[in-house]
Structures are given as C-alpha cells and as structure tokens.
Design brief:
The protein has 360 residues and is mainly α. It is built from 20 helices and no strands. α1 packs antiparallel against α20. The radius of gyration is 21 Å and the shape is globular.
Length: 360
C-alpha cells in the first residue's frame, strides 16, 4: 500500500502540471478511495465501534432525537446512520455510504478552493485520510462541512457560516471550535504578528495552559473534555517536542514568506493564513494533551491542502519548483507510511488477541 501511494503521489504531481484532465483523475481517485474505505479491515481502529453504532441505530421510521441509547451522542450522525440503514441494513454499505459522503464533500472543496486539486488530494491522503475517514468518521464529516463554510467567512455572512458550524456539530461537537474563527479572521495579522503569536503560544502552553484547561473543562461537558485530558492522553503527549508543531509552523512561515508571490493567486489567501495560524496556535497551546491538541487543531489544519499547491506557483523556474514538489512529496509519503504502518501493527495485535481469546 505504501508503494502504491508513492506511485500515486508521483503520478498526481506530474499530472497536476502537465494535464488538463485533473478533474477526471480526481473523480476516479476519490471513487477508489471510497471503495478502500468501505472494504477496509473491520479490525481497523474504531471501525467496530461505528459498526456497533450502525447496528444499534433504528430505521428512519423509528428514529427519535430523544433516544438515549445511541452509541454516539451527536444526533445528526445517528440520524444519518438511520437513513443509510433504511436503504440497506448492511455494514459494508454503511461504510461505503459514509466514505462516499466525505469524499463528495472533499471533491467539492478541492474543486472550489484548490489551485492544483491533485496535489491537494495527495496532501489530504498523507496528512488526514487515515486518521479521519478510516477512523474518525464523524469528525471527517464535521471538518469538511466547516471548511466548505469558509466561503461565508470571506463573504462576512456570519449566519450562513454559523449554520455550517451548527450542521457540522451534529456530526461531531468539536466543530464548535470553528465558530470563534469567524471573529479571529476579522483581525488583520501581519507576518510579524504571526511569529510573535507562535512564540507566545509556546510560552503560555507551559504557564497558563493548565489554568485555561480547567476553565475549559468546566464549560465543555458536551466535548467530553475530561476524556482527552487524563491518563494516556497526558502520559503520551510530546508537549513542545511534538514534531507536528514545527512542521505546521514551518508551512505557515513559508506561506507568509511567499506572500508577495502568491497572494494574488487566490482571494482566500488571508483566510487560509489565518485559519492555519489559528490551528497552529491551538496545536501548540494544548500540546500537553495528545488528543485534545490534535483533534481541535486538525479542523483548520485542513487548509494546508490549499496552501501547499499555492506555494508551488512561487517558483517560476522549473528546477526550484521540481525540488519543492519533491520535498513536499517525500513529506506526504512519510506521513502516510508512518500512519499506515502504525495502523497495520494495531490490526495485527488485535488479530493476535482475538486468536488468543478463542484458543483460551
């Protein structure tokens, strides 16, 4: 699979600069991803939980928003599972349907926001696909809806954007993190503000972080905050040693550095910059908690799939551009290989435990 992804990245990077048929390749690629999502190993992390939720969901005629026996508390997700079940009560069909919905949303945002959709797709696959669409199905849907709503942030249409966040929150409560961004984006950040902001976030994460965390916990029962700030979520945290902090900071600062060359390419330049800045601040500030920092910062880290393709155009000469593409290609492949290898190891361990249990 890692080799196949490597070849796919090389193929997409070459086509993105040499082909006028990107939309066809994008569509075919997303359809193949839907098939992979639907027919993945059921021992893949969280898959059994989602299948259990689907089996427990009633059909649409018996659905009730007052039901208290749903596996997941978000009623929108429960309702969606009921709709799928009404069409066909089949586990594989359910996984295919959820994957198809996410990939349809991804197709829409790549076509609308991304200058080079195939490069954006590769970055999404390397950075986000395995953790979201193969594991955190609810958050994948929620995040893509919030990202789609960025057009309303640009238009200063608060209520339309609020509606997107509200709908997204019905799939995952973490979507509410997206609401403050509307007001955050109203601030005109200069590049030196961003540099200072990253440094201050690091300082505050080690001084004010625990105090702020206690306040957040008090008002965040719906976010299941306590789960993400205890036990292994603290013990396994890398804190400021988390390499993702430095990767996102590097991407953000490089994006700012190329501002003069790429800003005119898209009217969303500043929104992407502010969104990624917002994400990186959250990632740094909550770095003492693995899941909390990752699951809250990943919402707007998604705009990276638009930023990297824009930066390709900062290089006018062929050699520097190819070197840049090679660099981000290798990074994307590394992310995918690391996550895929970890998940395969988890699946193998789970299979061994099942065999041991059956033989005992």
């Amino acid at each position: 699979m890692i080799l196949a992804f490597t070849l796919f990245v090389v193929f997409c990077f070459w086509l993105s600069l040499n082909s006028q048929k990107q939309n066809v390749i994008l569509t075919i690629s997303l359809l193949l991803i839907v098939v992979l999502i639907g027919f993945r190993n059921v021992l893949w992390n969280d898959t059994q939980g989602y299948i259990a939720a689907f089996r427990q969901a009633p059909d649409i005629w018996h659905f009730s928003i007052y039901s208290s026996d749903a596996v997941y508390k978000e009623k929108g997700y429960h309702f969606l599972a009921s709709m799928v079940k009404t069409i066909w009560d089949n586990d594989r069909f359910y996984l295919l349907a959820m994957g198809a919905l996410s990939m349809f949303l991804l197709y829409k945002i790549l076509r609308y926001y991304c200058l080079l959709p195939l490069i954006g797709l590769c970055d999404y696959m390397g950075r986000f696909l395995l953790n979201r669409d193969f594991i955190q199905i609810r958050s994948s849907l929620a995040i893509l809806i919030v990202i789609y709503g960025l057009k309303f942030v640009k238009e200063r249409s608060f209520w339309k954007y609020f509606l997107c966040v509200l709908i997204a929150s019905q799939f995952h409560q973490m979507a509410w993190i997206g609401l403050p961004f509307y007001f955050f984006n109203l601030i005109h950040f200069k590049n030196w503000h961003i540099v200072c902001g990253l440094v201050l976030a690091a300082v505050f994460s080690q001084t004010l972080g625990p105090s702020i965390s206690n306040v957040v916990e008090k008002y965040s029962d719906d976010l299941d905050y306590a789960t993400y700030t205890s036990g292994a979520y603290i013990e396994e945290a890398l804190k400021l040693k988390n390499p993702m902090i430095y990767f996102q900071s590097a991407v953000l600062l490089l994006y700012c550095y190329f501002e003069g060359k790429i800003k005119k390419l898209s009217s969303y330049y500043s929104i992407y910059k502010n969104a990624y800045f917002y994400s990186t601040i959250i990632l740094i500030f909550f770095c003492n908690y693995t899941a909390l920092s990752g699951r809250t910062s990943t919402i707007f880290a998604t705009v990276e799939i638009f930023m990297l393709p824009m930066m390709v155009f900062a290089f006018k000469k062929k050699l520097p551009r190819n070197l840049f593409l090679m660099s981000i290609g290798l990074i994307i492949i590394y992310f995918f290989a690391y996550k895929y290898t970890n998940e395969i190891n988890n699946i193998n361990r789970a299979a061994e435990l099942i065999i041991e249990f059956r033989n005992s």
